Amino acid sequence: MHGPMSAAWLLVALCAATGAYCLLRMRSGVEEQRRTAGAEALMGFGMALMAVPAAVVTPPRWAWLLYAVVFGASALRALWASRAGAHHLHHLAGTFAMAYMAVAMAARPATHTHHGAPSGAPLLTGLLLVYFAGYVLWSGARLVPVAQPAGGGGVPAPGWGDRPELARACRLSMGIGMVAMLLTM
Length: 185
Description:
This protein is mainly α and 185 residues long. The protein has one domain. Helices cover 68% and strands 0% of the residues.
């Protein structure tokens, strides 16, 4: 990632912390939540690795190709899983965007100091930016608390790994990170 060094390190920290929390969410008793948390952990850690400032570490071309293969495979898995629900379409968009950015980084000339992108990339980058900016606004609005009836209705509180508002906060932070990464393309 190119840009201000402090912003890049903040993005690395945000994505790594999100990935770590998603790993902890994998302890949920609900299988679908475990699978979703695993996919989100992969995204969080992958985004953290890709956001490391280029001035610190410049990965070789093969590393970008490896990222493209990993996230391409994850995109295919999300495409297959999307038959079961619309949430997987968001995972598909995220993993596709990660594979796209990895391919763009692998395709850039070795002497070029800014992100290189394949031809036609400004349109695709713009579409991804619009999607993720909209997702950030939508998911941020969903975090606004809703009044709960007094007494709780006798429903036990979910475990910390099964709390939907924490999962939404993770997705929001990864959406913000994705917008920041796409802006550097």
